Amino acid sequence: PKPGDLIEVDRIFYKHWALYLGNGYVINVTPVDEGAPTLSVSTLSMFTGQAKVKKQLLKEVVGNDSWKVNNKYDRSRTPLPVEVIIQRAKLYIDMEVTYDVLGNNCEHFVTMLRYGEGVSDQARIAIGSMAAVGAVALASTALVGLFGSKSREKEY
């Protein structure tokens, strides 16, 4: 990777994102609890609403998971100059930041550093999925209300 690149790490149920700083280091959001593994950032931070920004070795963040450089938003957004990205990133090291899986997650954080705007496809997809499930549930409820229930219960 090159400084300023977005690093996508494949976790079991989600993608974790970091930003490459150079010399083997990345910046990423981690649980506020110092003893908690980086792997659990979304789970722990989801409940606390807080995360800590850390500079760590890429190999520590990745562990045994696979990873790749993924600057996918370069197709629709212009990255800031590398020097600006790195300078902005360094300002956040060791800070506590708010964390929200759908509105302010690890992908939002690193894309904010790279592009000046936080975006997250995985959050957008999750929100879309929740909206679809909600729409199906609402439609089912409406149909039951419209046509009534056909079940017959015995009286004892």
UniProtKB/TrEMBL annotation:
Keywords: Hydrolase, Lipid metabolism, Membrane, Transferase, Transmembrane, Transmembrane helix
Record-annotated membrane-spanning stretches: 125-147
InterPro entries registered for this protein in UniProt: H-rev107_PLA/AT, LRAT_dom
Domain LRAT: 6-122
Domain of life: Eukaryota
GO biological process assignments: N-acylphosphatidylethanolamine metabolic process
One GO molecular-function entry: phospholipase A2 activity
Family indicated by similarity: Belongs to the H-rev107 family.
Protein known as: HRSL1 enzyme
Species for this entry: Campylorhamphus procurvoides
Lineage of source species: Eukaryota, Metazoa, Chordata, Craniata, Vertebrata
Gene symbol of the encoding locus: Hrasls_1
